[in-house]
Amino acid sequence: MEDTGCTQADYEELDRQMKKCTAYVLEHRDDLFWSMLSKEQFGYAHLSTGPDWDCTGHCGSGAMPALSVDGRIYPCIRWLPHTQIDKADFIVGTAKEGFTHKENFLRVREGAYRSNCSRDEKCRTCEVESACSYCIGGCYSEFGEFKRTTYICEITKLLVKWARRYWDEYNRLEGLEPIDWASEAREKGNRHGIG
After folding, report:
1. How far apart, in whole angstroms, are the C-alpha atoms of residue 175 and residue 12?
2. Contact indicator for 45, 160 with CB cutoff of 8 Å
3. Residues in the chain with pLDDT values less than 50
4. Neighbours of 157 (CB within 10 A)
5. Which residue segment(s) compose the domain that 157 sits in?
6. Which is it for strands 66-67 and 93-94: parallel, antiparallel or unpaired?
7. Judgement on whether residues 195 and 128 belong to the same structural domain of the protein
8. Which residues contact 89 (CB under 8 A, 6 or more apart)?
């Protein structure tokens, strides 16, 4: 994701706004769901390792082709020439000829795998890494290589924090069992060959 230039004051404001929004969604829990509080994406966030680390990525690039105005097909919208100024051309085919360069789909998919693009140690050891979004096309546009950006680390941590608080409070209000987030994260990791 792009660098939004957030300051500590911005993160503090986002935290306050998330608190208000979470309270509102809880108050209207029978009528409203907010995907930013997703239990699957944010609540069960965990450190990715094993097959989850080696063979998956958060980005869908390479799995959702985009057609440019000149009829060329790209791995996704973020690989169109106007977003990749002075970068390698990742054309995968044309509307007329079909997919003639399927190897570029594979390059992009493999480039988006967590193990290939997460070079920073803070990603490799982050306890909520699985929740962290990234756009490999945007990253490639910025760096000219398959390297994950880390601009949204603090935002992701806030999303995890408020998703977990939402579900803790939701379960309390509904008389449901509390969630042991550490156990759930371990279980999620075990399903992916971790541990």
Report:
1. 31
2. yes
3. 192-195
4. 19
5. 1-57+119-134+147-195
6. unpaired
7. yes
8. 81
